[in-house]
Design a protein that fits this description.
about 375 residues, mainly alpha, two-stranded antiparallel ribbon
């Protein structure tokens, strides 16, 4: 039984709408952007708090939130499709993901490899064109997380590592859901297997350089974070009443929100299971924002919803526009920290909105043909 959902058949294809989640996407992007503003201030020689524990944590936590959110949504959508049609159609799923992700991804890669290196304004200290063709191959093959794990970064393209990890997740996840009947057992198994291999690579880290690379690559393919999101989707989809009642408990929600906020602003690492603990906390938050009409916190605000809609652009463009903002202000000998933040956010929002309306939407509209 599917309860408390807005299920609408639009243009003969199913759309599942969860309230609040667009706003949560924006909050995830916000954490990443704040982290990178301080990072680029350091790179460009400005006073900064980049090494503050909370600032260091923000980007990682923002990306983890993106991963859990993606796992929840994609798993739920695939479960709905399987229930409604008796099957998961892999090819249309891939095409829908390609239409949403690839155009902007490859635009950023094109600019980062072939345009920005030739613009003096975009020069970043410490970034050169070394290993150009090797990096280009990995980025074109949607494996930026692999080359990033090997220490070969790309100016203005580093953030794409998480896009590569998500695409790799999308490549295998529909097949797993399609052929495993017991979804709960599948997801728990995926999480345990991921953690097992991560542990094995960790204990072998100093044995040989290959294991060090394997650990870093595995670490940047956090399928467990996405699987945790899938776990909460399965609980809701299958209407596990006791689990739902527990997760929607008001006291639990308050505790989870307080713990999450305090942990983020304390900047404390949670050790080996750092991202797994955050994945569970974020999973509970997402579960309630998406499914609970009595959620203790509500993000149903139009401007936040729109910023969430353009969050992919915010995430992909923000590095470029932070640097542009800082260098424009430097050109006028302005070093005001507040203005750096204001201009960085303003330019990022404007460019992301224009990209969404006049570039990304063209491809998004095409998705309706592949349901």
């Amino acid at each position: 039984m599917i309860n408390n959902l807005h299920l609408n058949l639009v243009n003969k294809h199913m759309k599942v709408f969860f309230p609040n989640l667009n706003s949560l996407r924006f909050l995830a992007a916000l954490l990443v952007i704040v982290h990178h503003i301080e990072q680029y201030k350091e790179i460009l020689g400005l006073p900064n708090v980049f090494h503050n524990h909370t600032i260091q944590l923000m980007s990682k936590i923002g990306v983890t939130l993106f991963f859990v959110l993606s796992g929840f949504l994609i798993t739920y959508l695939l479960l709905v499709e399987q229930k409604e049609h008796g099957n998961i159609k892999i090819k249309p799923f891939y095409i829908r993901r390609i239409l949403r992700i690839w155009p902007l991804y490859y635009l950023i890669i094109l600019l980062a490899f072939f345009v920005f290196p030739h613009i003096e304004l975009m020069h970043l200290p410490g970034h050169d064109g070394s290993h150009f063709f090797i990096k280009l191959i990995f980025f074109v093959l949607m494996m930026p997380n692999v080359i990033h794990a090997m220490g070969a970064g790309l100016a203005y393209g580093t953030q794409t590592w998480s896009i590569g990890a998500e695409e790799q997740f999308y490549l295998i996840w529909p097949w797993l859901l399609k052929f495993f009947k017991n979804k709960l057992r599948l997801i728990i198994g995926v999480i345990l297997v991921y953690l097992l291999f991560r542990y094995l690579f960790a204990i072998l880290f100093y044995k040989h350089v290959i294991f060090a690379y394997l650990y870093r690559i595995w670490y940047l393919f956090p399928i467990d974070n996405m699987a945790f999101g899938g776990l909460f989707a399965v609980i809701y989809f299958n209407n596990y009443k006791k689990a739902i009642h527990f997760l929607q408990n008001k006291l639990l929600q308050i505790i989870v929100w307080l713990v999450t906020v305090l942990l983020i602003f304390s900047g404390k690492s949670l050790g080996y299971f750092h991202h797994q603990i955050y994945s569970i906390l974020f999973g509970i938050i997402i579960f309630n924002l998406a499914t609970n009409s009595k959620t203790v916190i509500n993000f149903k605000l139009k401007y936040l919803d729109y910023l969430g809609k353009i969050s992919y652009g915010l995430y992909m463009y923000h590095s470029v526009l932070i640097v542009v903002s800082i260098k424009l202000l430097q050109a006028f000998n302005i070093k005001n920290n507040f203005l750096i933040y204001v201009l960085s956010f303003l330019l990022t929002i404007i460019v992301a909105a224009l990209s969404y309306e006049y570039f990304e939407k063209r491809f998004i509209k095409m998705k309706k043909n592949y349901y």
